UniProtKB/TrEMBL annotation:
Residues holding NAD(+): 10-15, 35, 40, 91-95, 132-133, 166, 277-280, 347
Active site: 277 (nucleophile)
Pfam families associated with the record: UDPG_MGDP_dh (PF00984), UDPG_MGDP_dh_C (PF03720), UDPG_MGDP_dh_N (PF03721)
Example GO biological process: UDP-glucuronate biosynthetic process
Protein family according to the UniProt entry: Belongs to the UDP-glucose/GDP-mannose dehydrogenase family.
EC number: 1.1.1.22
Superkingdom per UniProt: Bacteria
Catalysed reaction equations from the record: UDP-alpha-D-glucose + 2 NAD(+) + H2O = UDP-alpha-D-glucuronate + 2 NADH + 3 H(+)
Name by which UniProt lists this protein: UDP-glucose 6-dehydrogenase
Amino acid sequence: MKIQKICCIGAGYVGGPTMAVIAKQCPDITVTVVDINEARIAAWNDENVDNIPVYEPGLSAVVAEARGRNLFFSTDVDKAIDEAEMIFISVNTPTKTYGEGKGQAADLKWIELCARQIARVAQGDKIVVEKSTLPVRTASTLKDILTHTGNGLNFQILSNPEFLAEGTAVDDLMNPDRVLIGGDQTEEGKNAIEALVNVYARWVPKDRILTTNVWSSELSKLTANAYLAQRVSSINSLSELCEHTEADVNEVARAIGTDSRIGPKFLKASVGFGGSCFQKDILNLVYISRTYGLHEVADYWEQVIIMNDHQKRRFAKKIIRNLYNTVSGKKIAFLGWAFKKDTNDTRESAAIYVADHLLNEQSKIAVYDPKVTEKQIFSDLDYLGSRSPEENRKQLQAEKDPYKVCKGSHAVAVLTEWDEFKSYDWQKIYDSMLKPAHIFDGRNLLDKEALKAIGFQVHAIGSTN
Ligand code: NAD
Ligand code: UGA
């Protein structure tokens, strides 16, 4: 079966870039991305392609090439479902904030709404593709809803999890390590798998397109994120030991990373991992394991989150300890708010939790991030509910100028590894700060020796001075 029309429900960080790249690589396939969020769709359609709602290096150019040709963004969900032979579901699947499984299970209400909408609207057979990250066995829920409420049509459910990382989404999509497609092992299931394989095969070498049964595919996505996050928590746990033993975590990471069985990636000690998925997906894995009564398995993975929370708290406490055990009324300059460089995404960013801890100690905070808006910063803090929105605005300010943010501060804290921080005039920053001037480098980004030569007191992650 040759796919001619694709619909994607959800125009977020995954749906937008993924569909833009499919449209770019397959000019003969019409790709329509739909969303209930009108503002988001309007932004994707903005005449000025630099105003699209997701900042990713190279993404504007991809959208500019395909938009209006075979890539469309719309709020007319029914129409797009009706017309497409293949429907990707790429809606949010956050951690539940209520009821059974609160704080751990994935909230699947948006997924279910999509399934019910597809069942209501569809007039012909459809291939429904899980692009969102989902608990293992969700495909059976989708199948159940579609077959019981659909119009007697044939629905094939595929799992095609997305492995892109933010900040490198376009590169990851253009040149993925692998594409994973899981489906039923029946004749129809295999045909559906082949239809999707043929879409990716336009630009992804066949040996990088892995096909599995649907459950393996669903579980592999949670597993991949759990393994990646586990590496970060492992190196972060050792960063604390390094700080007590004069070992240097960067040297340890290099030493173990050259072992080809371990490999050098994801060994960068930091203030803690953030992002919308690592925590959510591990919590989900923990919840699923507990549901099956597998308590040792659950406890094992939960430790990755416990360690990450500890690392964020430890960073905030280190700032307080070095500022003579009080930050009350003191100005701390934050460089970075996004959860990693080259993205405007702040979901679960370590910066939010470090700020919250310091604000509880009555510090003042000034924030500069090259891509994050003031509105987003306040929305992140207000969401925590630790203090009133007015208090947050009294204690924290966001600025467009990094030098202004650092001026008059007791300490600078680097929360995101933006490249531009490295090329700042650090002498000028030092001159404008209160003394002793501290730098807490939560990313081991800056040149420690050069900063020390200027006169800064430098506190890195995982090494002593
Ligand atoms: P997002 O919140 O940026 O986007 C989801 C979009 O879906 C929103 O715009 C929302 O309005 C829309 N939506 C929700 N319900 C809808 C409905 N019924 N009809 C139409 N639109 C609806 O989320 P995201 O970051 O793109 O993540 C989507 C999924 O992909 C999640 O399951 C996530 O775990 C997974 N994932 C994310 C990343 C990432 O880097 N962000 C990477 C891999 C996988
Ligand atoms: C991650 C995975 O890398 C993707 O494969 C996956 O598709 C995605 O989650 C998802 O499912 O959402 P992402 O969260 O965008 O991608 O970014 P990462 O590069 O994985 O970084 C996650 C966090 O870990 C960031 O806060 C980053 O700063 C931190 N990190 C990463 C470290 O602290 N040290 C490292 O060595 C690597």
